[in-house]
Write a structure and sequence with these properties.
With 255 residues, the chain is α/β, with parallel strands linked by helices. The chain contains eleven helices and ten strands. Helices cover 44% and strands 17% of the residues. The strands form two sheets. The chain has a six-stranded parallel β-sheet, with helices on both faces. Strands 6-5-7-8 form a four-stranded parallel β-sheet, sandwiched between helices. β7, α9 and β8 form a beta-alpha-beta unit. α2 packs across α3 and α8 crosses α9. The protein is globular. It binds D-glutamic acid. The site of D-glutamic acid (DGL) has 16 residues, from α3. D-glutamic acid binds next to α3.
Length: 255
């Protein structure tokens, strides 16, 4: 039966899992909630490769068929190296810069410092020199969301303080999966702008890989979440089950 492994530094990648669940992509999901190394966004490329390597090993031990790196930072910093090291399909998530450039002139890229600095993002942007890109400092946002996912006011205030100086913005690119949890607050600041997220792209790619490899898809969906550091607190466990609309088995301290 199809087993899909997923990795993120915390809850961000669960927005990608929600996309898969809502699209009916049945599988046994093994989700690494790597809170031991959260946040990824301040890490160097070599640290990200080491983190990615050890998390891939853990997922291989679960005998997963596919890995989804449900994190822009880890994708930008490590996915090409990891693809050279492991012989299973690895799907990454990248900021949807290209679709934004097709509709917008002035674009905000919201991403972690590590993603913004990455060669991959620089390359993508250099192909669209006729567009204006802005990179607000979002270094604290993933952690703020991780700690205040249910306090939308705190998230809104942070965004209002850090974004309001950017005017005449038509497109906002979500370049970190954690920020999918802040889209409503972003839209409150920019009600007329279009928000671009890559969740649907990852779902499509996953469906393509499943069909291409003829993996045997179960007629059920099961989700196991493994934190690598501290136990996820009980309120957050409830929140995440409610968010996905299904029961989750939680395990902690995965070595
Ligand atoms: N959710 C992650 C991303 O998409 C990482 C956030 C972090 O750990 O800094 O980039």
């Amino acid at each position: 039966m199809l087993k899909i492994g997923m990795i993120d530094s915390g809850m961000g990648g669960l927005s990608v899992l929600k996309g898969l669940v809502d699209s009916g992509v049945n599988a046994e999901y093994y989700y690494l909630y790597d809170n031991k190394y959260h946040p990824y966004g301040s890490k160097s490329q070599s640290e990200l490769v080491a983190i990615g390597y050890s998390n891939m090993q853990k997922l291989i031990d679960f005998k997963v068929d596919i890995v989804i790196i449900a994190c822009n930072t880890l994708t930008a910093g490590a996915v090409s190296k990891l693809r050279g090291m492991f012989d299973i399909p690895i799907i990454g998530v990248e900021p949807p810069i290209k679709p934004a450039t097709m509709q917008c002139e002035n674009i905000l890229l919201l991403a972690t410092p590590s993603t913004v600095k990455s060669d991959r993002v620089m390359e993508m942007m250099h192909s669209f020199t006729n567009k204006s890109f802005y990179f607000p400092d979002m270094s604290k946002l993933a952690n703020l969301i991780e700690e205040n996912y249910s306090n939308k006011d705190i998230i809104y205030r942070f965004l209002a303080d850090n974004l309001s100086k950017y005017k005449n913005i038509q497109g906002i690119v979500i370049g970190c999966t954690h920020y999918n949890f802040a889209v409503e607050e972003i839209q409150k600041i920019y009600p007329k702008s279009k928000v671009f997220s890559n969740t649907a792209g990852v779902v499509k790619r996953t469906q393509y890989i499943i069909n291409k490899n003829k993996f045997i898809v179960p007629n059920y969906l099961a989700v196991k979440v493994y934190s690598t550091g501290n136990e996820i607190d009980i309120e957050k466990k409830y929140f995440l089950c409610d968010y996905l609309g299904l029961g989750i088995e939680f395990y902690e301290n995965l070595k």
